[in-house]
User: Fold this.
Amino acid sequence: MFRVMLVDDEPMILRGMSVIVDWKDMGFEIVKSAANGAQAYEYLKENEVDLIIADIKMPEMNGLELIKKIREEGISDAYYVILSGYNDFEYARKAIRYKCMDYLLKPIDSEKLIELLFQVADSLRNRLQMSKDREEIRNVYYKQSLTALLCGKYDEENIKSVKKELNIDKSKCRFILASVDNTVLLDDMDDKETNDIKEKLYNNAIKYIGNANLIIKDTFDYIDEHEIGIILLDEMIKNLDKTETGYLKELSEALNYDLKEGAVLLAGKQVEDISKLSRSYTNACMLRSFRGFSIERQVYYYEDEVSVSHNNLILFKQGLDELITAIEQNDISRINKSVDVLYTEMERNGLNQNMQSMNISYLLFSLIHLAVEQDESVDQEEILHYISENSFDTTFTRGGRLHLKRFALSYAEYLIQLRKNVSRGILSDIEWEIKNNYDKNLTLRDLSAKYYVNSSYLGQIFKKKYNQSFKDYLCSVRIDEAAKQLLTTDEKIANIAENVGYRDPDYFLIKFTQVMGISPAKYRKNGGIPT
Assistant:
């Protein structure tokens, strides 16, 4: 409802205007009736209205003085209509200079008022739409600029855009990944269930942080389906008079509200300025991998997990290099032996968390380098993604020798896949599977097992070829088929959703609208997407 304020020193005029038309039916609500310009001015200082209808001649402050004052002081940009008698026409002309929309002559004609209200409503709707369009364009550019910063491929305009939206000039910051810690549950979830987790994380984050621009839900490719990104500004924490440790502990608790899966925070290294955000983002991605070998905790700091002091710590380089060579050669017996030797050495020297962190760090960084040597086209982000997915093993104690053996054997297989460059034949088979079985519960994990390919590597080469993830590709195939059925059959929308593989009709509506930009019902009614 558009908000209206009536201003006139004659009570009968005010009462008459309030009943002369059906304001509510026309989309308006009278929120204030003022006896003069001074009363109206005081109300406008604290409240917003969309339309002001004011008499010209009033005591204390007349209608012309009121519009002049609110325009010059920038108090209100409401549409302004003046009431005047025939002898006041010269005043009305003066009011036009202060962006007065129109004038009504007394006595008020209901048809004239209705005609004017139609004009005002149209203008207000256009103004709202323009405001929404501008806001949407600004949001899109902010997301593009933020993505550029995360990639480390930005220009000065990107930095200006992000700083403007975050209302900062220079502030230390961290990039933080909020990630679900229960890999067993995630493996058994479908798209909707993982999307629901992300929505819960996002909504809980907004409730605690308050600023949606600091929370990243779907801007960047390497934020998983069950993760959100958070920008932590040092300036913000100082203004709240909190320590960073205390703030992140409270944030972790807030994110886990009503979230049975359990979420942890992966805090990248603090950087001096928002322009260096990509470094902190990369650190947070590394923590995905390192936490699989660490003691479980609510918040993982890059500095604590990776950049440990080497004072009084021992790097078992010879044993680690032996393990790396065994992994490179896919020598199963040698891998098992090397892990045993490594842990025996660490136990002999008094195994502690810092010692283990340093040695695991050396191992993982070496494995990243090894993968890049096998296939230069593989992005380090993708390798980190692989390591993070395979760092967890619920069967064995985190960081134990059996855990490391399982991981090392898996990584040796991964390197074999890189060498073979299996993308040509396998991807055509996977494409055939999707196009012929899109209505079934297809997962990358199941297809990789069927075709004897490492699931993480299959995801990487799939994205390279199709420029989108396996899930997005499957979704597009399903939505295309649904669109065909909407136009060529009389099936109910819920049945079509099930036909193409969506068990939840509501989730199908969301995905269809996201992909096609129009709801299934409107798509069918319009005979497709209107041009």
Observations:
- The domain at 143-305 is CATH 3.30.70.270 (Alpha-Beta Plaits).
